[in-house]
């Protein structure tokens, strides 16, 4: 909403950010869903942790990779300078747990 208010339109930059944030949410939500797997199974909640099971780590990495790619493209399209990329690399390291 902030982008639309400031620029009067939606373009590829906010849409890429929105899509990226969707995948970031899938990643962290899957991590937290693992804490409640047993309860979710009992009450019938269909969580990503139950759906992805032992493959969750691979899926979370994929979700975060899509997030980073979409965010990187958004920053590039927005014309962010060279300082954008080291920050994105630092974020990638954080998401990787390094």
From TrEMBL:
Necessary cofactors: Mg(2+)
GO cellular component, one term: plasma membrane
Annotated protein name in UniProt: 4-hydroxybenzoate polyprenyltransferase
UniProt superkingdom: Bacteria
Membrane topology, from the record: Multi-pass membrane protein
EC number: 2.5.1.39
Gene3D superfamilies per the UniProt record, alphabetical: UbiA prenyltransferase
Family named by the database record: Belongs to the UbiA prenyltransferase family.
InterPro entries reported for this sequence: Prenyltransferase (IPR039653), UbiA_prenyltransferase (IPR000537)
GO molecular function term, any single one: 4-hydroxybenzoate polyprenyltransferase activity
Chief location of this protein within or outside the cell: membrane
Transmembrane segments: 6-27, 61-85
Keyword Membrane: yes
Keywords: Cell inner membrane, Cell membrane, Membrane, Transferase, Transmembrane, Transmembrane helix, Ubiquinone biosynthesis
Keyword Cell membrane set for record: yes
A single GO BP: ubiquinone biosynthetic process
Subcellular location: Membrane
